[in-house]
Amino acid sequence: MRVLLTTYSERTFLQAMVPLAWALRTAGHEVRFASQPELTDHITRAGLTAVPVGRNRGIWRLAELSPEQREADREGLLLPYEAAADPGAADWASLRAGYHDKTHGWHKLDNFPMIGGLVEFCRAWRPDLVLWEPTTYAAPIAAAACGAAHGRLLWSLDVFGATREVFLDLAARRPDPGAPADDAELRAAAEKSGDPEVLEALADPADPRRHPDPLAGWLTGFAAKYGVPFSEELITGQFTIDQLPDSVTMRAGLQYLPMQYTPYGGVAVVPKWLWEAPKRPRVALTLGITATDRFSGYVVSVPAILEALATLDVEVVATIAEAEQHRLGPLPPNVRVESWVPLQALVATCSAVVHHAGPGTLLTVARAGVPQLTVPWDFDEPELARRVGAQGAALVVHASEATGERVRDGVRRLLDEPVHRQRAAALRDELLAMPTPNQVAVQLEELAAKHRVAG
User: Fold this and answer.
1) 115, 212, 413, 415: which one has the fewest Cβ atoms less than 10 Å from its Cβ?
2) For the purposes of burial, counting CB atoms within 10 Å of the CB of 176, is it exposed (0-12), middle (13-18) or buried (19 or more)?
3) Hey, which residues does 354 pair with through a beta bridge?
């Protein structure tokens, strides 16, 4: 069958999708990967056939014009998606206001530049199956426009599906579920969210912030241009592939296919110094690529953490972006700084890893069975870190509290207390017991046959 994978131009999303694309190719399927042109080189370096669609325009390029706005939404799950972590505290008006903000300030900006080209390609190539990153809403529209089956491929917790479930449940409890937000609901939303701009809608009954379902409203008009009627499948897919083990995952009332996480971090070369086992316990520090690729830098003091870790009887390896290395100052003799090292190769030699709780990093460390200390900050990281901490394989120090001393003390606990190694081994075993991408590829053949539209 013909399979199309797609995301807007975000490298970390691509990396989470590559192993399944390989599995589908080795199963004999014809596989292509569509994205905006700036991701083309990363796709082809992964050994996949790229299909550039649309323009290189989206939230990150617009946000570069306003560094303050770009940084504002980094800390944790903001509305509406914080409802996924605490459904009991959610109310309909606040979620609706949050959906309005994220629809028009995030999802629309990322999807609009590629939707026309993606629909055009799908109608020409006629894929049987489209697999899409969970906020690439152009994909289910393109799939429906050509009759393909389609499903989401998650890169982290399903905060999008869980939030949608909470929102629809709250909406159904309203006296008139289809009615726009009234003044009282808007005032309550503004008070809870702390966003005074919500009150602007009070002056205009036609203000789009009053729409009872901003995400559905936007997608309805978006899809109608291509002859596609709205359904919830345009938001949560016909099925969802989940790469998190049961002890950590977050799910809604949807059909999920568990799939074992397989690390892919791009083109990799293992340096010679990494061939031999370390003479002392090795501790890695890695803070991901998004902080420097998309934002203004790391949110913790790397020099303070390195200085504190160096007081332990360990070898420290820190992967720090070249643009940030000038801020480090003199390095202690037991600290090694590299611009980049293949993470899977590095963590396999480590006794502990300190990181930002990005899902790719966290799952790569988990797969190696190594205890972790997380310093989360961005979007899903605090909730993901909390869940792994509850499982016992990690300690959590929020980035706002991650002093050098607290990180050092946490690493000492990971090295000295056997329970953390035991729980890390249990998490590794749980992850490795999940179906491999090759096994999931067989399930996808059945789902494609079930959901695609004949002719």
Assistant:
1) 413
2) exposed
3) 285, 373
Structure tokens at 309: 């870790």
Which of 239, 231, 230, 10 lies closest to 131 in space, CA to CA?
Answer: 239
Cβ count within 10 A of residue 379: 20
Check residue 391 and give its pLDDT: 97
Q: What is the pLDDT of residues 57-77, one digit of tens each?
A: 755 554 444 555 555 556 778
Do residues 5 and 21 touch, judged by C-beta distance below 8 A? Answer: yes
Please write down the long-range contacts of 417-422, taking CB distance under 8 Å and 24 or more positions apart: 419/392, 420/371, 420/392, 420/393, 420/394, 420/395, 421/369, 421/371, 422/392
Residue found under tokens 């009991």: 88
* Single-letter amino acid, residue 382: P
CB 147 within 8 A of CB 452: yes
> Tens digits of per-residue pLDDT, 255-307?
999 999 999 999 999 999 999 999 999 999 999 765 555 555 677 888 999 99
Whether omega for the bond prior to residue 212 falls within 30 degrees of 0, making it cis, is: no
d(CA 120, CA 17): 22
Alpha carbon separation from 37 to 44, 53, 105 (Å, rounded): 12, 6, 22
